Amino acid sequence: MSQNVADLTKYRKQKERPVVAQIEDGYTMISNTLMDAAGATDLSGSELSVLLLIIRHTYGFKRKVWGLTNTYLAAKSVYCVKSISKAKKSLIDRKMIWEDEQGLVGPNPVISDWVMTDGKSEKRAKAANSMREQLLQQVEQMLQLDGTNAPVDGNNCSSIKERTKERTKEIDLPSSPQADDETITKPNAVIQKGTNWGTQEDLDVVNQMESILAGWQGEDYRPPKPAALAKKCNDVRMMRTVDERKPEHILTLFKIAQADRFWRKNCMAPSSVRKHWATLVDIRNDLKKSMQQKPHPKTIGADGMVRTAEDWNKHIQQNCVPQFNEKGELISHA
Q1: Which of 156, 246, 277, 301 is deepest in the core (most CB within 10 A)?
Q2: This prediction's pTM
Q3: Domain of 150?
Q4: Structural Rg of the chain based on CA atoms
Q5: Please, are residues 267 and 273 in contact by the beta-carbon 8 Å criterion?
Q6: DSSP result, 117-164
Q7: Are strands 105-107 and 97-99 parallel, antiparallel or unpaired?
Q8: What CA–CA distance (Å, rounded) separates 237 from 243?
């Protein structure tokens, strides 16, 4: 019997063990002064990689120099041989490493001889500032006369200029807010955070939803932060205005979701109600249908009269949807 059982252990993906650096596996004795200088030096990625590899294969083996070819350094890094050769030459020119006639290389321990910067960073920063000033000038020109004129300087291609002029004539270029707090407040908004906002009606719906969640979550309940509360109000507002849903219908479907063990965890926000609206409506219709199919019991009202069909329909309407008390707890209809 055991011969017919296939061994599937070899097909299982083996969990890779984490690689943890430990001194017991070996270490490199290096001066703190040299490490501080390397961290404060303006180096490119390939230059830093070559410097660290040279330190590792010299000081790491308690030697000052070693024969390290460009091919070997490239195999130990993510850079090609050409990039390694260029970086190595730059380090030699900046006197951070040195190479003898036999091709042995090693780090230069005389930090005072190092050329800490090659001036490329300053050039890149200067070019970036120059480009930024040109862009600001072009934007100022575009915003003149309500954005009807295109930049005077720039691309010499007439077709691009013409398209830019046409677009700046068609669209308005208002100054966008720099932060959420600077967003223009909506006239009827009682809560707003960035582009999310809601009216008092939306906030009331969200507060009722939160009271239901707090009822069954108990000590685990955490009230939403201002940004999350504004997002929920915004979702309710979108359902009212865009989807044309009534607030009482929104709350009804939310209560139905909270009465179900599955939907309780998958429908805890207005956005989930909006996403699963059609499914929740089907659940509500099934509940209503199952209640209507029950035989009408003969009951006596408070006035001593038999309850009529109208009274029974009213009773169904009140009991086809799960009801909650003030604490948000589900009221059982036994």
Answers
A1: 277
A2: 0.38
A3: 120-170
A4: 36
A5: yes
A6: --SHHHHHHHHHHHHHHHHHHHHHHHHGGGGTS--SSS---HHHHHHH
A7: antiparallel
A8: 9
